[in-house]
Amino acid sequence: MKAPEHIVIFHPAAIGDAVLATPVAALLKRNFPDTAITYWSHSSLEPLIAGRCRSIDRFVKFEKKPVTTLISQLRGLAPDLFVDLSNSLKGRLLGLAAGCRTVSYRKDAGKRAADNFVETIRPLIKNDEPPWFPTLVIPEGGNADDPDLFSPGDTLIGLVPGVGNKRPHRAWPPDHWLVLIRGLSRENRQLVLLGGPEEAGLGEEIESKSEGLARNLCGRLDIDRTAGLLALCDLVVAGDTGPAHIAVAVGTPVLGLYGPTLVERSGPTGYEHLALSRSGQCACLQAKYCLKAEKNGPGACMSLIEPAEVIERAEQMLAGLQADASRSGLR
User: Rounded mean pLDDT of 137-144?
Assistant: First the structure.
């Protein structure tokens, strides 16, 4: 197709989905380098999407307003291509009223989330060759607040023990995290707990019970600084949650822990084959809530992932990364 002058991507989404969709902007910019791309989403995503995704030229804050008001706002942006990634009635109505060519996301449960998002624009582009990630650029030093926060040369392992309050059954039990921390802890390694404000108490509990073997930064960093720290990590261990996908987007390997969600759909892109899953033993697979979980607690199937196998897989991944670095002459 002829290169559009201005593309608007509409995607008011949660962090994980927003990050998984960043290849859409990257591939559009790859195919249409002179096209201006506007991203229309929640203001909370602006530091991450607008600040770190170089394919985005402008960020517009989405606010919950009547559809008629949103239509006027869209027409004021004057796109000649509207990309609706929202999978919502509101997005479809905007597309009908956009006054320009529109393509809309359609969920296919048999495909990876990132593939579903890219499928939306495949009819428009010629070059969709991988790699699609990383898509977020972090300045050298990872944008850390304190340059002395971590010792240079040490192996930095990020641990994401929480999954937010909406889907607690996706979490791995706190006691399992403690065993993992003790198993991975050794000289020249630093372990850091990452997560949002909802995980602040959990992070404090794990830090205390681990007797300081893991440093708690849950709830202490904004989304931009979290991305910066994830970029500094050599490896991240996480369940199905936003920081896992941010880690992939900044180029950090992820060991995913899965049960209520399918690795082949929601796993960390490019590292699905290394994830540990008990989805085959999950009684509430792909359900929003786990009937067998204690209130606000991990799902039963997540408890079946043993710390010993997570430690073994993490060590394998770290050894592989070190071998790759040695072959590249980086260490």
Answer: 65
